[in-house]
Amino acid sequence: MEGSGRMHRDSSSSTDLRLAQLLESERRNMKQLWRRVRTVAIAGGAILVAGSAAGAQVTFTGNTFGCFYTSATAPTDCTGLLASTGSLTYSGSTFNVTSNPADGLVAIGAGPSTPNVNNLGSFKLVDGDHDYTGENFALFMNVTQPAGVMGNHLYTAMVTGNLTNATSGNIFIDFVNTPHDFTFADGTTLSFSVDDVSVNDQSMGGTGTTVAVTGHGFTHAATVPEPSSLALLGTGLIGIVPLFRRRRRKV
Predict the structure, then answer these.
(1) What confidence tens digit (pLDDT) does each residue in 163-213 have?
(2) Domain limits of the chain?
(3) At 108, is the secondary structure helix, strand, or coil?
(4) What residues have CB less than 8 Å from 25, skipping those under 6 apart?
(5) Distances in Å between the alpha carbon of 50 and those of 25, 54, 202, 221?
(6) What is the b/e burial string over 176-193, where b = at least 16 CB atoms within 10 angstroms of the residue's CB?
(7) Radius of gyration of the chain (CA)
(8) C-alpha distances in angstroms, 145 versus 37, 38, 105, 248?
(9) What is the model's pTM?
(10) Cβ atoms 168, 126 nearer than 8 A
């Protein structure tokens, strides 16, 4: 009887020891699993941040054209409309600009030239003798690169300035400054607005004054995750698999 009791106690002790070892092994496995999961989470977060950052440079190319109108509804294009009214004339432009990698700022604002480059066109006012108040202007901004643009490329403005019987004066082209949002085929986005324009005709000898149309906005580039980030994510996922298999075998 005594020998039987000793064997029972030894068996219980062995079972307790194995249970304690198993629990310790499970604790270590869970600790390793948590480390792997944390590594994967950090890698995934880095990839998400890289994918939505404004830090990548984006080049935008395109052109502008415009026309004046007096109807209550803005035109869909400039067919049958003129780019001049009274002594005020608009000239279109081409642009090729790159965003600032630090904050995603896109500025199109070079001075007027012939032809216009890297602005949104220009207005030229020669002398006066015309009432511009109540007329409207439609500016069309066509972005050709990046490709696959979707968004409203029409910017409208109200013209104010009565220069009737005046040899000089001011005209204000008041654009609707609400930014327009553009989305491109590669996932890049651009929020862009056009600045108001003031033209002060101080012509000498009838040469007139020319002022550029400018605009600004912000872009977010759809960047591709760096290979190092993808490798880190893959390493973490691969490392988790053996831990799950080990747990399944023990269960």
Answers:
(1) 887 666 789 999 999 999 999 999 999 999 999 999 987 665 567 889 999
(2) 2-53+225-250, 59-220
(3) strand
(4) 250
(5) 38, 9, 51, 9
(6) eeeebebebeeebbbbbe
(7) 34
(8) 40, 40, 17, 53
(9) 0.69
(10) no
